[in-house]
Amino acid sequence: MNPRAETAPAASAAAPRVHRFTPAERWVHRTTAVLMGVCVVTASFLYVPEFAQLVGRRELVVRVHEWAGLALPVPVLAGLASRAFRADLGRLNRFGPHDRRWLRAALRRDRRRESRPAGKFNAGQKIYAAWIAGATLVMLGTGLLMWFTHLTPIMWRTSATFVHDWLALTIGIVLAGHIGMALGDPEARRGMRTGAVSREWAGREHPLWRG
Question: How far is CA 25 from CA 21, 154, 185, 192, in A?
Fold first, then answer.
């Protein structure tokens, strides 16, 4: 038996941890992820013919999709009561010189640690957060135009349907990329699940962050 194999898990568990997310922040992320997942799944049953054939009660799927979409901003709005969540929103909203350096390195596929300086959130995470927030608001607005058909002209509803459908497809692709990157980084997932990450990971991936 290899004694090093026996001590490896214990050593990993005993590694210094750095607090990253509060319970409130993790609740916002999980709840938003569930609601977004419901929107994506129900949309696929509504628009993909092969999936639509599997559902007998289309009207129920439409209602679930609509109410999940309406509820999507609620976790973020509730999270504003958390000081830590508001602080992280401020970090996500600030784009500095180190973020531009990170982006240039990412575009060049330069994976050297010194080429990708990052604070608590890197430039890619900041861009994703801004994009998904804007896309969610557009989806909510166009969805409301499609829902309250008697309040708007047909041209508005047609345009809203076009934007809603194509943006939904784009969101699905972006979310798939987001999930793929998360699957490739177990420590980042552990931080979102437990609220803490290893000090070694924090120093490597977010060297400018002082946790």
Answer: 6, 41, 19, 9
How far apart, in Å, do the first and last CA atoms of the chain sit?
38
- Residues 114-145 have pLDDT tens digits of 889 999 999 999 999 999 999 999 999 999 98
DSSP code string of 63-131: HHHHHHHHHTTHHHHHHTT-HHHHHHHHHHT---HHHHHHHHHHHTT---GGG---SSS-HHHHHHHHH
| DSSP code string of 25-72 | HHHHHHHHHHHHHHHHHHHHHHH-HHHHTT-S-HHHHHHHHHHHHHHT
| Contact (CB, 8 A) for 107 and 123 | no
Which two tokens mark 202? 């924090």
Greater pLDDT, 111 or 35: 35
**pLDDT for 57:** 78
Residue 138 contacts residue 166 (beta carbons within 8 Å):
no
Residue 188 and residue 176 in contact, taking contact as beta carbons nearer than 8 Å: no
